[in-house]
């Protein structure tokens, strides 16, 4: 086990045994935190810069000075770090204990002892916990709420965390109808049946990288796209494939359904990026005055 993995594991063991760990053991939930520990090993300044730029571009700001930022499902802690570097007061939480540990490791590396960045364990489905948090100028939940097992309740819950005039930045898997249902079955099988995992990972790798790899060889640039992906994402494509194939629970939504939900709760759409395939649609909503 590498240094990052050891530190994350040590921090994770400090958390009380919780439901998420039991769900992982029973094959009801993917161990996202284990993948984030690997991500931290390859993190570099370019990846942090890209994260900061994605926040400023989608939120249409130059910085976050004087703003409060809530990172819902913080994962590796990369975007919590980006927000803090942009000047925000940050609060990070995740349901997965090892993800919490990885976010804590990110803080330890870059902002040790920083009182303006709080890291803790919590659930976006726990209304009592959320009520204690108050409201924030920016609520960020990228690629998280569709993995809760109760996506629509989670979408409703985060709306309550946004201050009047504040922004909600979320990303939700695009609904591809029959295709999405097929992937849901694959993800469920991956988590329930360990013996199938190598086969399913091989299938996912072939779907994601088969044609690209063949084209790289055809153009006499073997694995060029793979190496470029590592540089840009800071993580091996292999582990991203594992994250995609294993990512359970799994739900999807059409852009129209997400828009209607927040419109009915007093939000206006300020930014939108849609995907035609299986990726995430990105939304930025602004909470209007009551």
- Indicate the multimeric state: single chain
Q: Mean pLDDT across all residues, rounded? A: 90
What overall form do the CA principal axes indicate? globular
What structural category do the secondary elements indicate? alpha/beta
What is the tally of beta strands?
7
Textual characterization of the structure:
- The protein is an alpha/beta fold and 290 residues long.
- It folds into 2 domains: 3-175 and 252-287, Rossmann fold; 182-246, no CATH class.
- Helices cover 51% and strands 17% of the residues.
- It is built from 13 helices and 7 strands.
- Strands 3-2-1-4-5-7-6 form a 7-stranded mixed beta sheet, with helices on both faces.
- 40% of the residues are buried.
Outline the secondary-structure elements.
Elements: H1 3-13, H2 19-25, H3 32-41, H4 45-59, E1 68-72, H5 78-85, E2 89-94, H6 97-110, E3 117-121, H7 127-133, E4 136-142, H8 151-159, E5 162-173, H9 178-192, H10 197-218, H11 224-233, H12 237-246, H13 255-263, E6 267-273, E7 280-287
Parallel strand pairs: 1-2, 1-4, 2-3, 4-5
Antiparallel strand pairs: 5-7, 6-7
Helix pairs in contact: 1-3, 1-6, 3-6, 3-12, 4-5, 10-12
Properties at a glance:
290 residues, Rossmann fold, 2 domains, seven-stranded mixed beta sheet, 51% helix
Give a quick precis of the structure:
The chain is built from 13 helices and 7 strands.
